[in-house]
Amino acid sequence: MNTPLLSVEHLVKRYGDTTVVNDLSFHIQPGECLGVIGPNGAGKTTTLRMCLGLSQPDGGEIRYFDGLQMPQDALAIKARLGVVAQMDTLDPDFTAEENLLVFGRYFGLPDAVIRERIPQLLEFGALSHKAKAKPGELSGGMKRRLSLARALINHPQLLMLDEPTTGLDPQARHLMWERLQVLLQEGKSILLTTHFMDEAERLCSRLLVLDQGRKIAEGKPRDLIAEHLEPEVVEVFGQGAVALAQEAGLKALAGRVEVSGETVFFYTRSNHHQERWFEGSLTYLSC
């Protein structure tokens, strides 16, 4: 096995009496996309912030390539990372190409090198026609792709993205996914946090599932879905739907029942014939 690009061991973060990251360990191999998924408050962004040296851990170790350790070697590590934050951090007074130029200078890159790279990055982000546009003139999806292009200016060894498609419309999400898939095909290594299982399944070779700061599952997306999620869902809504949730026969057929307002969700691992009988029972009981 290759030496991990990032190795996190027994990471802990507390705010007062609240532990928001609790004994978390994981690693990222070269060429891998590791997804960190979980609900709000699970500790995803806090974990990313500690890996970036923006928040001091209360316990554990964060080690990078070549034996570098965060936060002791923060500057050397950051020079080899690319970051796309959840919030827009583009400079509103600069054009798209100027944002890339200024950001490249932060890494000490010569202007000649940056200017040669700018057209390539704009083309990668499907933004060549917006080179002279300022962020305020760009759509949400364009801004996110410009942020991604900016994060690549220094040829990072590891790319970190915090919920890269949150707030985007479906078309913009798919464009962002397509760009990230290109990077993975080129061998880039990615750590991303997300709320969306479809995003994780599409992009990630491995998933880390967090809840209340703890790792509750880890593995390939399809394996986790097969193990933890029921494949069939029957949704019932309208008058009388909630009462069906208490029907003993239906509860026996369903592995799990959830009620949300006037809608009831019956989750089942039943085979095709059982599923048809289950739905037929719902039709009969709804009459």
Could you provide a short overview of the structure?
The protein is an alpha/beta fold. It contains eleven helices and 13 strands.
Please characterize this protein's 3D structure:
The protein folds into 2 domains: 223 residues, Rossmann fold, CATH 3.40.50; 55 residues, no CATH class. The strands form 3 sheets. Strands 6-7-8-3-9-10 form a 6-stranded mixed beta sheet, sandwiched between helices. The protein has a 4-stranded antiparallel beta sheet with strand order 2-1-4-5, covered by helices on one side. With 287 residues, it is of the alpha/beta class. The chain is globular and about 70 Å long. The chain is 37% helix and 27% strand. The C terminus is likely disordered. Helix 3 crosses helix 4. It is built from 11 helices and 13 strands.
List the helices and strands and how they pair.
Elements: E1 6-15, E2 18-28, E3 33-37, H1 44-51, E4 59-64, E5 69-70, H2 74-78, E6 81-84, H3 96-106, H4 111-124, H5 140-151, E7 158-162, H6 170-185, E8 189-194, H7 197-203, E9 206-211, E10 214-219, H8 221-228, E11 232-237, H9 241-244, H10 248-253, E12 256-260, E13 263-268, H11 272-286
Parallel strand pairs: 3-8, 3-9, 6-7, 7-8
Antiparallel strand pairs: 1-2, 1-4, 4-5, 9-10, 11-13, 12-13
Helix pairs in contact: 3-4, 5-6
